[in-house]
UniProtKB/TrEMBL annotation:
Gene3D superfamilies: MFS general substrate transporter like domains. This is Major facilitator superfamily (MFS) profile domain-containing protein. The keyword Calcium does not apply. It is found in: Cell membrane; Membrane. One of its GO terms (molecular function) is transmembrane transporter activity. InterPro entries: MFS (IPR011701), MFS_trans_sf (IPR036259), Tet-R_TetA/multi-R_MdtG-like (IPR001958). It is a multi-pass membrane protein. Its main location: membrane. GO terms for cellular component: membrane. PANTHER family: FI18259P1-RELATED (PTHR23507:SF1), ZGC:174356 (PTHR23507). Coiled coil: none annotated. It comes from Aphanomyces euteiches.
Length: 373
């Protein structure tokens, strides 16, 4: 056993792993309830469909990326110092307070608030990945990371459907449901989630500023991860096709918002299946993470290319039912990065990966909206 493996195995065994996954699923569901109903809420609550609506969206996207760049890696580094649960609880408190505030505040800052929820959700998931990695050997990392990703898929599948249904009853109903899910998730996190990082494995720092500087220097300390960061960004960047899928389906097949909600919910279900059943079967075949990543990349490129040749809307369901298998490459790539860095930088790494995935999603949106303005 290598020294790194020994340090990984030395960590506290993760008690009640279902608790973290449940909390992440609830928080993901609460955000998806708001995000997918937010455009209708904006127009319905404020009766304003034209007054710089695009400008507000651009500002929200810029704020999301800015907050992630400032605090994502820092929160990861702080978890390496003070433990995972304390930082997870802090993220949960901020996330819950923002949801409660949005439920009671009627303001055009609603849009920015919803985007900021995405930033705090990413921070919670970064802690989830770090906690998952503390308690398993490297041979089980990919499967464990897949379960954390599946938690997001559960929230995606349930959240957008629930949000749209609740909005048909009352324009504030989604906020009430999101607030309830957040409070319940916070209660579960307090009572059932246990610390996974031992005191002896924590990183010593003298100040928060020193931790912040350290969070920015990961690539300098671990230069071999930079190329993987670039590839990680590119793979997520290709996934932004989902951002424009609604416009594509509306133009080619006449899909309306309700049709797209069903399709995205179907994608969320496929994601959960791939991250649990499919990934488990693949791991039993004992492939390397490199093979999983390369196969996923080829499949992703093939499906996106085939999408341009579709002539019927139902063909998209068939393509993405198969194509969502490319998602198994994300936990495999994360596992590769995780094994390249020193154990004391694991929290920093997952905070940095959260920033990269956010940047890959919001930068194309930012450029697109700026082009329209």
């Amino acid at each position: 056993m290598s020294p790194v493996d020994g340090m990984m195995m030395h960590g506290t065994k993760m008690k009640r792993p279902w608790a973290v996954l449940t909390v992440l699923s609830m928080y993901s569901c609460s955000v998806c309830i708001l995000v997918f109903s937010e455009p209708d809420l904006f127009d319905d609550i404020y009766h304003d469909v034209s007054a710089h609506h695009d400008a507000w969206i651009v500002r929200g996207i810029a704020m999301l990326l800015g907050v992630q760049l400032m605090f994502g890696p820092l929160l990861g580094t702080l978890s390496d110092m003070y433990g995972r649960k304390s930082i997870l609880m802090a993220c949960c408190i901020v996330h819950s307070c923002m949801t409660i505030g949005l439920a009671f505040v009627s303001s055009k800052y609603l849009t920015q608030g919803v985007y900021l929820l995405l930033a705090t959700l990413n921070a919670c998931f970064a802690m989830g990945y770090a906690m998952a990695s503390d308690s398993v050997a490297k041979t089980h990392l990919t499967a464990r990371f897949g379960l954390v990703t599946a938690a997001f898929g559960v929230g995606l599948t349930v959240g957008l459907v629930v949000g749209h249904i609740l909005w048909t009853f009352h324009n504030k109903a989604p906020f009430g449901a999101a607030m309830g899910l957040n409070l319940l998730g916070f209660f579960i996190a307090c009572c059932c989630v246990h610390e996974t990082l031992d005191e002896v494995d924590r990183k010593p720092f003298n100040s928060i500023w020193q931790a912040y500087v350290s969070s920015l220097g990961l690539c300098r300390r671990q230069s071999n991860v930079f190329a993987i960061f670039v590839f990680y960004f590119c793979v997520h960047l290709a996934g932004t096709i989902h951002v424009v899928m609604y416009f594509y389906a509306n133009y080619r097949f006449g899909w309306q918002l309700s049709d797209m909600l069903v399709f995205v919910s179907f994608q969320g279900f496929c994601l959960v299946f791939c991250m649990t059943v499919a990934l488990t079967l693949l791991v039993r075949m004992d492939p390397t993470n490199r093979h999983l990543v390369l196969g996923a990349f080829i499949l992703q490129a093939s499906v996106f290319a085939a999408t341009t040749a579709t002539t019927r809307g139902w063909q998209l369901y068939l393509l993405f039912a198969i194509g969502m298998l490319h998602a198994v490459g994300f936990p495999a790539l994360r596992s590769i990065c995780h094994q390249l860095v020193h154990p004391e930088d694991h929290g920093t790494l997952h905070g940095r990966l959260a920033v990269i995935s956010t940047a890959a999603v919001v930068i194309p949106c930012f450029v697109q909206f700026e082009t329209w303005l």
